[in-house]
Structure formats: structure tokens, C-alpha cells
Amino acid sequence: EKHPREMEWDDTSLGDRLNGILLQTISCLQNRRCPHYFLPNVDLFKGKAPSSMDNAAKQVWRILRELLTNPKSLEKL
After folding, report:
1. Taking the model in full, what pTM does it have?
2. Which domain of life is it from (predicted)?
3. Which of its termini does the chain have fewer beta carbons within 10 Å around, N or C?
4. 67, 46 in Cβ contact below 8 A?
5. Rounded CA gap, 25 and 67, in Å?
6. Angle at CA 26, nearest 5°, toward 23 and 28?
7. DSSP assigned state of 3
8. Rounded to an integer, what distance in angstroms lies between the CA atom of residue 26 and that of residue 10?
9. CA-based angle 42:16:20, to the nearest 5?
10. Angstrom distances, CA of residue 55 to CA of 29, 36, 61, 77
């Protein structure tokens, strides 16, 4: 929804799109809420341990930092 045009998903923009997805994931983990896309009142994180979400957020931050600081990091995937 945020980037509906096909040109926003071409090879030159893919890194930006991936960064945005990872930042949104971190936000959901830190806020302890991940609404279902089609059923926004359904929280996909309901019942998950806060410590698990904290650990997951740290791991996503680690991946994001690697992508931002190492230009060849995508080649490792």
C-alpha cells in the first residue's frame, strides 16, 4: 500500500523497500502489536512473550544495520 507503483519495487529501490519492511517489523515488535492485514483487530503477537519480541527486535536491528553498513551484505543472503 505504501509503495503501489511497480517502479517502486524495481532493482534500484529494492533495498529501500526491504529497509522499510524491517523498520516496520521492528516497530511492531517494540510496540508488542502486529495487526493482521485483513483483520486489523486481530493481533498476530497476542500471547507472545515480551522477551521473545525483544530478542526478535534485536535480531532484526542487527540485520538492518548489516544491510545499511555493508553494501555487499545482500550477496550473503
Report:
1. 0.83
2. Eukaryota
3. N
4. no
5. 15
6. 110
7. S
8. 24
9. 20
10. 9, 21, 10, 21
